[in-house]
Amino acid sequence: MTVAPLLGLVRAVQANYYRVRLGQPYYGIDELLCVRRSRLKKIGQHVYVGDWVEVSHPDWQGQRGAISNVLPRRNQLQRPAIANVEQVLLLFALADPEPDALQMTRFLITAEVLGVEILVGLTKADLVSDALETLWRDRLRSWGYNSYGFSITAGQQWQALLRSLSNKVTVVCGPSGVGKSSLIRHLHPDGKIRVGAISEHWHKGQHTTRHVELFPLPTGGWIADTPGFNQPELLAITPQQLAQAFPEIRQRSATQSCQFDNCRHRQEPNCAVRGNWERYPLYLSCLAELEAIKDYGVDTAPHSKTKTDRHGAQHQEPLLDPKKYRRRSRRQQHQQLTPLDTEEEVMDV
Questions:
Q1: CA-CA distance, 226 to 204, in Å (whole number)?
Q2: pTM of structure
Q3: Which of 61, 95, 114, 120 is deepest in the core (most CB within 10 A)?
């Protein structure tokens, strides 16, 4: 008789420990504090928040266990490190700190590449005029995004997000100081979530959240609080993915095709995308950054291989580092040069 594996969702990662919420409670226990099995460490298999994992050797009395396997991921964010995201909620402040079009675009590109639904929230609406809020919402709409404008500290406008967050795994991203932790504290009042103040000198947010953590929502689903950062990296994005990450380019490409299939929408003749739209200079700036990264060289070698288990199911397994785990062949050992005799040994002879 085959025993079904014990499955759970990684809710938080701190140091070398993982808080795993079980798919169903056992003996009245719904969460275990787990470590990663040494086999996973050896093959370089990382465990991220949002991963569905198999837990072995549960200690129900001590509420501990060991993660023995990571199930295939739907998607993965490198920064913040989180897997199996169903939608992204991007938060930007209308004041303290003021919104920046390039910074917002980089966050939007990172979310677009995941291929999930994107929600945009504009916080601190109580600190600006209605005209400025409307200006930014119209500007985002011209980029291809609907947005919510609200204040977390005044009024209940933030509750309009609840319907969109229900029964989904949502990761909240954005610069420091825009109110990510404050919003999640409203959505999950029972959680012990730290919030910080804005730096009076720099007028920027101070890092309050130190690690990624999933919090359950009362309406169902999960929401992830993440550390704030001001410049998302574009290392893992290709120029083709960059173009598809702009709704303006997708809209223009749907009605008219460029002359060349690999058109980068720069100086190519008969380009259907190049033109007078607001974020076109930002697209060129990001494209130049990606080309510079390519010129300097990025490791594109595969880091995983497909394995088939005894039940016929396929899964990805990280490749071993040959420098760490592969023994040198006998030929290489015999070819190794022996060190020359030292001067003292020669004099002794």
A1: 17
A2: 0.75
A3: 120
